[in-house]
Amino acid sequence: VHPNESQGCQGGCATCSDYNGCLSCKPKLFFVLERTGMKQIGVCLSSCPSGYYGTRYPDINKCAKCKADCDTCFTRNFCTKCKSGFYLYSGKCLEKCPDGLEANNHTMECTSIVHCEASEWSPWSPCTKKGKTCGFKRGNEVRVREIVQHPSARGNPCPATSESRKCIVQRKRCQKEGKGKKNREEKRKKSNKDESKETRQESKGRAARRQNREQSENNNKTQPKKRKTPNKEQTLAPIDTAH
């Protein structure tokens, strides 16, 4: 055994030193040096810590440091997350985004500028004035459109979503809704009244006829039958005129 090496290493170390920690790692683990004051200690990890990226070689797997402005990286020249104050663009950390791009303070990335987009105008509405479509000659008509894409911070702002213009219509009188409704109500009441009157009259007629019929039947039942009396002329004896 080498004088600087120890037996019975722990923490995934293949070989280790009492002073420097791990000297090599078991298969699939990454070797990284961690600074402790003025001393560096070797450790073996399953993945590289933040600020490092992993490289695999036949004899050893190592964790190497990312660039100073990079928080996490895939390789030394390709950053995946920048440190505070820098914006990520194409694997690089920049203090200012290139032309045509804008800084996204939420994701800390340089993103494309998005301009506002609006739909087509709707057809013009009917000509109105104070919410009515009659009783005037000059009014207004409007049309609207919707926003289909909101802009980013540096994108072109959205245009107006409604337009109004003057319009002229042929003057026509407005039908008084209250009067018309009142007339309809009166007609309906009158019709119901006439129907009720006819119904009452028919009921009275039927009741009178039924009463007369019942009275007639009662009279026939209570009146005694008249007996037939012989004719006086038939009962008198014949006068003998021979004497």
Automatic annotation (TrEMBL):
Start-end of Basic and acidic residues biased regions: 175-216
Main subcellular location of this protein, as a coarse class: secreted
Keyword Endoplasmic reticulum attached: no
CDD domains: FU
Domain of life, source organism: Eukaryota
Compartment(s) where it occurs, according to its Swiss-Prot or TrEMBL record: Secreted
Domain Spondin-like TSP1: 116-170
Keyword field: Disulfide bond, Glycoprotein, Heparin-binding, Repeat, Secreted, Sensory transduction, Signal, Wnt signaling pathway
Chain intervals for the UniProt region annotation (Disordered): 169-243
Entry GO terms, CC: extracellular region
Reported function: Activator of the canonical Wnt signaling pathway by acting as a ligand for LGR4-6 receptors, which acts as a key regulator of angiogenesis. Upon binding to LGR4-6 (LGR4, LGR5 or LGR6), LGR4-6 associate with phosphorylated LRP6 and frizzled receptors that are activated by extracellular Wnt receptors, triggering the canonical Wnt signaling pathway to increase expression of target genes. Also regulates the canonical Wnt/beta-catenin-dependent pathway and non-canonical Wnt signaling by acting as an inhibitor of ZNRF3, an important regulator of the Wnt signaling pathway.
Family: Belongs to the R-spondin family.
Quaternary context: Interacts with the extracellular domain of FZD8 and LRP6. It however does not form a ternary complex with FZD8 and LRP6. Interacts with WNT1. Binds heparin. Interacts with LGR4, LGR5 and LGR6.
Protein name listed in UniProt: R-spondin-3
Provenance organism: Piaya cayana (Common squirrel cuckoo)
Lineage: Eukaryota, Metazoa, Chordata, Craniata, Vertebrata
Protein encoded by which gene: Rspo3
